[in-house]
Amino acid sequence: FLRVPMSESIKSLKINKQVFIEIGIYILLIGVAAAIRFWQLDLRAIHHDESLHLFYSWKFFKGQGYFHDPMMHGPFQFFGNRLVFSLFGVSEYTARVLYAFWGTLLVALPYFLRRELGRLGAILVATMLAFSPSFFYFSRFARNDIYIAFWSLLIVIFLWRYIQHGRFRYLCGAAAVLALSFATKETTFLFIATLGGFFLLWRFGELWKGVKDHFSLSRLSLPASCLIMIISLVLPLYTAGISFFQRPLGIVLANADEKAGLIGAPLEVKGTTVAVVAVILFLELAMVIGFRRWGWRYLVLFGIFYGIYVALFTTYLTNLAGLGTGIWGSMSYWIVQHGQNRLAQPWFYYFLLLSYYEFLPLLLGVLGGIYFIRRRDIFAVFLTYWAVVSFILYSQAGEKAPWLVLHVTLPLILLGGKFAGDVLVKWRGWRKGLLILGLAIILAFTIKLSFQASYQKNDVPTEMLVYAGGAYDLKPLVSRIEKLAQDSGQGKGIKITVDSPLSWPWVWYLRDYTNVDYPDLGKATTPPQGDVLLVAPGNEAKISPYLDKYSPGERFHQIIWFPEEYKDWKASDILKPVGWQRWWGYFWSRKTVGPYYSSDGTAYFPR
To answer: Which residues have C-beta within 8 Å of that of residue 115, sequence separation ≥ 6?
Structure first.
């Protein structure tokens, strides 16, 4: 230290102070993100989709096994929830713990992209991730999109580290996260196709030359090697894409008729044979490509990826059918669902969500795309490409839902944070002060909307993010059933009859009760026997002769729906005052034209 000139020592101390402050900011952001995500995590009733994921996680925890079903996406969340239940018990709070934990970890990831985003840009990205209304809300929600956002950003981090340093260990990390992402949700297919498409466009000339030179891939550049790694690992998982051509082939590779067999599965010997042969051929091609690039080291990448993938999809080799539902069914099932357009959302659905909730990253992202278009910053080009392609893909997808907005918002947050950080570093004087003031005001309004969306508990769904949410009536009704069970002396053995249209989320809420049935009371020919009856609308009259021993029925809300008046909007409305008035009325005061609606039920208790 004494040999170092005093000026150098002071400079070193200043750098260390800056690093200390920077790390302190990240710790503060992570702490705040954790606090707001874990606080009152059980405030809301369990959502319909949450109850599916949680009930089968609970069955797994109780030793009843797990079998992959593409309808409920990948196995990762079931393994994760089982672990949480084992460590902390089963409750509405613990049911959402892992999602909140992953949502908190996501806030820390920009730290590892400081070089690409800029130090200030990375902090701004972390700030937007911490307080984003959609990331905040779906970090407190038992769906796996928050995991996918985490995996996607982590994959980007590993690949960019590999591009910078060329160390094989970064590819190993990317292979592991790739496997976890595919084992989490099928939106990974869209992200990896987007990512691979960028590397293909970036290094197309080099790759084409390598193919022409007798398939020589061993000397490819690091960016081109990223694409080769992706193709050599995930190509077999895209095999079901050939089902788009099943009609010309005259075979069924992705079944769309529930009566004929499993949705997404190949039918008959011909369809199954073509599917199996295609997977084997794609697997062989992938391995040839991998060996051409890395030789025997490729087995390490292959072993990491498929070791994780096979272990999760087959439940540690106890469900070998999981290989078929995973490698083929994961894609084919959602190809079928894409064609059905189940939720019937308009093409501008994500633009509405972004403009209502993620206006800060939307504004900064658009400005950032324009700002970086003439600058030779390949990472900014990638973020712009990622944002544009994601918006197009998800806007054209057959199924649109509010939780999917995370995948459109993530690249916008990264691009917007990088742009704002670059500009704040370069600008001086009043322009910089004005920008800081503007960002602070918009961020404050964003935080207000975040808390409003995540902590609202009433039965009036004024937030578009609350889609098919569990009504607040559910929690008091569950408490009343628990009290009746305790007072009657029957405990968990009390007899409960739930009309089958109301099954979810009651299957989750009544999981510990041992005497529950779920008949279709609309077709009942015998008196219902439950001490408690939960009856779907329209079926009360059909069982009215059997209701003498019950007190008068009490109506309750079960699932609440946002009034989707925007489905009638037209593109031409944007140019009219009525269009702007509608948009502004909801943006500023959450004013809706149509009333909300709900799926109701009637509860009957003993006299």
So the answer is: 164
pLDDT of residue 302: 96
Encoded amino acid at 352, one letter? L
Task: For residue 354, give Cα distances in angstroms to 75, 216, 405, 527, 566.
Answer: 29, 45, 8, 51, 14
Q: What is the total residue count of the chain? A: 607
For the chain, residues with pLDDT lower than 50 are: 1-2, 4, 6
Task: Compute the distance between CA of residue 156 and CA of residue 178 in angstroms, rounded to an integer.
Answer: 11
Residue whose entry in the numeric block shows the structure tokens 């669902």: 337
> pLDDT digit string (tens) for 175-231?
999 999 999 999 999 999 999 999 999 988 888 887 777 677 778 899 999 999 999
Query: Rounded to whole angstroms, how far apart are CA atoms 536 and 434?
Result: 57
Neighbours of 523 (CB within 10 A): 9
The CA distance from 601 to 390, in Å, is: 39
d(CA 264, CA 255): 5
Grouping H, G, I as helix, E, B as strand and the rest as coil, residue 400 is: coil
Instruction: Give the ranges where 265-328 is alpha helix by DSSP (H).
Output: 268-294, 298-313, 321-327
Contact 352, 263 (CB under 8 A): no
CA-to-CA distance for 487 and 137, rounded, in angstroms?
A: 37
Edge-first strand order for the sheet with 532-535 is 469-470, 554-561, 597-604, 532-535, 496-498, 516-517
pLDDT, tens digit (0-9, with 9 covering 90-100), for 485-496? 998 888 899 999
The Cβ of residue 118 has, within 10 Å, a number of other Cβ atoms equal to 20
Distance CA 75, CA 325 (A): 11
User: Three-state SS for 297?
Assistant: helix
Q: Is 132 exposed, middle or buried (0-12, 13-18, 19+ CB in 10 A)?
A: buried
Q: For the chain, how far is it from start to end, CA to CA, in angstroms?
A: 85
Determine contact, residues 602/554, Cβ cutoff 8 Å: yes
- Buried b / exposed e across 468-484, counting CB within 10 Å, b at 16+? bbbbbbbbebbeebbeb
Beta strands 469-470 and 516-517: pairing type? unpaired
Tokens 């408490």 locate to: 479
* Helices assigned H by DSSP within 397-528: 405-426, 429-455, 474-488, 503-509
Q: What are phi and psi of 343, to 5 degrees?
A: -90, -10
Token readout for 172 is: 């190993």
Radius of gyration of the chain (CA): 27
pLDDT given at position 184: 96
Please state, in angstroms and rounded to a whole number, the distance separating the CA atoms of residues 175 and 155: 8
Q: Are 70 and 496 in contact (CB under 8 A)?
A: no
CA distances from 188 to 152, 155, 159, 180 (A): 8, 11, 16, 10
Q: What is the pLDDT of residue 1?
A: 37
Residue with token string 């970086």:
372
- CB 154 within 8 Å of CB 109: yes
